[in-house]
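[audit] Reproducing an earlier prediction to check determinism. Same input, same settings, fresh worker. If the tokens differ from the archived copy the diff job will pick it up downstream; this log only records the rerun itself.
[audit] input (424 residues):
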Amino acid sequence: MSTLGAIAIAPDTHWVGALDPGLREFDIILKTANGTTYNSYCVRGSSGVAIIDTVKESHAGEFFTRLEQVARYDEITAIVLNHLEPDHTGALPELMRRAPQAKLYISNKAQLMLKALVKHDGLAYTIVNTGDSVDLGGRTLHFLNTPYLHWPDTQCTWLEQQGILFSGDVFGCHFCDSRLFNGQVGDFRFSFEYYYAHIMRPFREHVLDALELIEPLPLKLIAPAHGPILRDAPRSYVQRYRQLAAPLLHNEIGASNKSLLVFYISSYGNTSRMAEAVRDGAETIPGVRVSLYDLQGGGNLPFVDLIEEADGLAFGSPTINGDAVKPVWDLLSSLAVIKVRDKLGAAFGSYGWSGEAVNMIEDRLRGLKLRVPIQGVRARLIPTDEELGLCRDLGKQLALHLTGSIEHRVIAMSELLTQESTHA
């Protein structure tokens, strides 16, 4: 256990969290080259003490040792849970046992999670929303409802008198440094950006909603649940979130225009010709900007950045060994980190024998919650003029759907079965 004691981050406000420098992977999906911290905070007022979040259960001993340095358990009147994931609530059951008089404060969407976490009949808690507050005597905690950052239950807590935002996972990162404060720790910029990309980016719309609540606050310090405490230039991190979350493409094409991206990979140039035909068809419709990309010529990350702001996506792949080719699947699997629900999707491709790739891509697009309203186009080997015409019509129909010129239509299962029998 670290010998680091409780650290004052402001008068009567202390960090009482835990350090986990040896952690190298978090929740399977995140690499943590510098470990992480589980940040918990203790706020003292003249009439009560509040604990803001706890720590992972394996590090509860550190948490209680530090907490006992700045408060007695019988002084604790409030326990605020900004987020109920186990890395924030692992010590909660024991804290409740030691401070049974303390009231729990959680968001509305945290109720079911709390009951699953603490197996206790008649568990008492208070639901809070934006505008609600708790008075500790000279210290007032105000609650900000910030759902889906990154779970439905998440909220932030604002300590009015000291200008401190206890932000939960927002503005956090996995970076462990016992010096704690951003102006003293090592360079953690890569961790901050990496954390945003994997945790917050899929919920960009909710980030923007949260920023509307946070930006007006007279911030002096941001105290996140993971990583360095942002004491120096805290507003710069808010501004960086605004930059990362703000759509940039509309600055170039105008908010009224739509963007269609056509991705393809081609063994012998046949799927490439189909992709060009899809592009040509889409470009006949005013108000749609079409971009064509060969997957063989670029990595996934730049394409994911483009897809995040696009309105429509079309994927072209040959069928090899009864499947779409790996670069297409790699790109599709990368889309989990962004919101693609309700974007428009389509597929096309050349094949030699069986031609399963188009239907497989369409199924994956539906699994990602894209709308796939138009039957994909398949061409055996070299596409004929008629098949290229079908590709042009596919592009045109996609563009018409994007501009709202025709009614949206989702292909029924019966139509899919008919298509299968036709292609068999």
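[audit] rerun output stored. Observation attached for the diff report: The chain is about 35% helix and 20% strand.
[audit] end
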